[in-house]
Q: What sequence folds into this?
């Protein structure tokens, strides 16, 4: 097991540090997700999509030489090593070898036809993952030479356009190398990059973008925004200025206030597009927001970022990808009543943007979607600054870490969370050892229950979203954490509501008819048409206690599908005839509470991530 690198002075210490890549292995339903991803588009994209095929500029060809190859590797590489899949590793190797061999004497690397800083920022992140998973000793000197090149070149050729908006991505790699080498010039370079990056701190301290944006600007481009949230926190590590940390909180709060969606994301059907539930959210922004949240929880130690991370991962991520991982959407809608080639109220995206296909609209999501589950898996747990381990998010996995020079620890996490309430963690140590284990307690859970070796513990003290257990751990000790889930409504515009239970949002599913739109081997492009009514309002009552009736079903290999939803809620609702379609999308929910003369019906809600057609933000029926 590789060493855990703490921040080297003068960088600020952080409450958590990432475990070395490879320390966490997926189990259970999470491993199933990664295997399905491998069997689908991620494992085969290079075989039919020319942008990442053998003619790529990142393989020495004369094809695409910008971001698509690096984007693809940023997900393919961790997937290969998390699954220990030799076939996927063999796909990764030529990209790594060509990139390392491309280094010039001055330190520059990559396709000679493209000198852009941005695409190299992605490949730097790929290379540091490669180094951690494989121990390749060529990476550190390679990065050292490139960063010397950057320091010499940036004063005359500063960050522009995408690189200027996304300079925080460059900081990740610089700090990674600094913590391993302590080379002072790296901090000089990181300071220069901060000065050349868009002033996200100033933007978030006095946020100006309150409404749907109708013109391009890097400050309102949804993927730039998703990446931007971690930039103030990364800057804090060098400045130690609390104003920079506060900017990250203010940024997320402001964007969610003016553009937030019920699935944990914010709109952006290319540019920030307000809170209407029929505006789109780009898949690239989903995976990039997840990665920003992973950095924010590491730097702040605040469990609230883990709450958001789980909400996005378990709702918005699976919803935009077919259950077999062969096709995806560019834009998803919270209220999505059909996915067709048709004009919608997008701010920039074309009429194909919410089809399920190989390359609906721009190809960036086709290349970039692959990082979501693998990076999430690799950061489910982190090391604490006082020599322990912290549960950042809950999913089945096994963690292996060296607590000190003589103590090896592994923790096996067995759970069907987020579909179930119970998480069982079994500790294995090579000798009894005292160290802390921090368990994230979600804000939505008011009465968590913890048992250690079958004995219920007294009320837990939760600080910044974490309960800390400090004791001597023996081999075989078992922790059982139960997070009781109560359905609760989330207030939305016009008196509408979303329904959340645990980390999952619940939606009214619409029966789906998939129809081929275009032949695009091997997976094709698909439209989805509704085969059942969608314009329901919900009565916020269920059984005699006034709560939805909860029904559990068996877990199957792919739980994120409408027919296999492992948990369902039964409620009462009525059709609302005056709620109709507008511009090929669900119209604005009528102001509620809504009176309806239609007969009351029992309706069954399923998790958001299981439904490709759905109503996630519904009017409330007048009692």
A:
């Amino acid at each position: 097991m590789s060493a855990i690198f703490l921040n080297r002075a003068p960088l600020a210490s952080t409450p958590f540090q990432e475990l070395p890549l490879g320390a966490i292995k997926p189990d259970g339903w999470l491993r199933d997700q990664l295997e399905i991803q491998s069997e689908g588009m991620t494992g085969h994209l290079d075989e039919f999509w020319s942008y990442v095929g053998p003619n790529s500029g990142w393989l020495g060809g004369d094809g695409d030489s910008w971001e698509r190859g690096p984007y693809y590797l940023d997900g393919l590489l961790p997937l290969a090593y998390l699954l220990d899949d030799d076939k996927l590793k063999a796909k990764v190797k030529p990209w790594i070898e060509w990139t390392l061999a491309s280094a010039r004497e001055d330190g520059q690397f990559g396709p000679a036809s493209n000198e852009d800083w941005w695409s190299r920022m992605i490949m730097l992140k790929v290379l540091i993952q490669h180094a951690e998973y494989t121990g390749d000793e060529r990476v550190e000197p390679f990065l050292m030479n490139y960063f010397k090149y950057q320091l010499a070149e940036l004063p005359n050729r500063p960050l522009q356009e995408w690189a200027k908006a996304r300079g925080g991505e460059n900081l990740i790699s610089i700090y990674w190398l600094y913590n391993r080498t302590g080379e002072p010039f790296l901090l000089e370079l990181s300071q220069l990059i901060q000065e050349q990056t868009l002033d996200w701190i100033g933007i978030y301290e006095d946020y100006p973008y309150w409404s749907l944006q109708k013109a391009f600007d890097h400050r309102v481009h949804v993927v730039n925004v998703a990446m931007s949230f971690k930039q103030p926190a990364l800057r804090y590590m060098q400045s130690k200025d609390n104003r920079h940390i506060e900017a990250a909180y203010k940024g997320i709060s402001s964007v969610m206030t003016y553009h937030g969606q019920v699935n944990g994301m914010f709109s952006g059907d290319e540019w920030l597009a307000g809170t209407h539930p029929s505006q789109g959210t780009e898949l690239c922004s989903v995976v990039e927001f997840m990665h920003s949240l992973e950095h924010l929880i590491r730097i702040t130690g605040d469990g609230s970022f883990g709450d958001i991370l789980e909400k996005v991962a378990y709702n918005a991520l699976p919803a935009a990808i077919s259950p077999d991982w062969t096709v995806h959407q560019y834009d998803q809608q919270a209220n999505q009543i059909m996915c067709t080639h048709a004009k919608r109220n997008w701010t920039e995206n074309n009429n194909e943007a919410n089809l399920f296909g190989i390359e609906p609209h721009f190809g960036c999501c086709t290349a970039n979607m692959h990082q979501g589950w693998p990076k999430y898996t690799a950061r489910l747990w982190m090391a604490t600054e006082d020599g322990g381990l912290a549960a950042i998010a809950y999913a089945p996995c096994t963690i292996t870490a060296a607590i000190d020079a003589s103590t090896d620890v592994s923790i096996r996490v067995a759970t069907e969370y987020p579909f179930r309430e119970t998480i069982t963690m079994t500790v294995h140590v090579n000798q009894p050892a005292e160290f802390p284990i921090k368990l994230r307690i979600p804000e939505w859970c008011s009465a968590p229950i913890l048992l250690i070796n079958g004995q219920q513990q007294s009320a837990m003290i939760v600080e910044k979203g974490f309960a800390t257990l400090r004791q001597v751990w023996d081999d075989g000790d078992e922790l059982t954490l139960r997070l009781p889930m109560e359905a609760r409504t989330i207030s939305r515009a016009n008196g509408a509501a979303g329904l959340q239970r645990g980390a999952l949002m619940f939606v009214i599913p619409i029966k789906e008819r998939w129809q081929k739109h275009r032949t695009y081997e091997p997976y094709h492009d698909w439209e989805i048409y509704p085969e059942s009514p969608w314009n329901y309002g919900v009565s916020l009552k269920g059984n005699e206690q006034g709560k939805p009736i909860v029904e559990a079903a068996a877990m199957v290999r792919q739980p994120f599908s409408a027919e296999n939803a492992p948990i369902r809620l039964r409620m009462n609702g009525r059709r609302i005839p005056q709620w109709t379609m507008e511009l090929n999308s669900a119209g604005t929910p009528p102001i509620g509470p809504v009176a309806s003369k239609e007969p009351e019906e029992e309706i069954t809600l399923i998790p958001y991530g299981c439904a490709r057609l759905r109503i996630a933000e519904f009017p409330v029926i007048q009692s």
Remarks:
- The chain is about 30% helix and 20% strand.
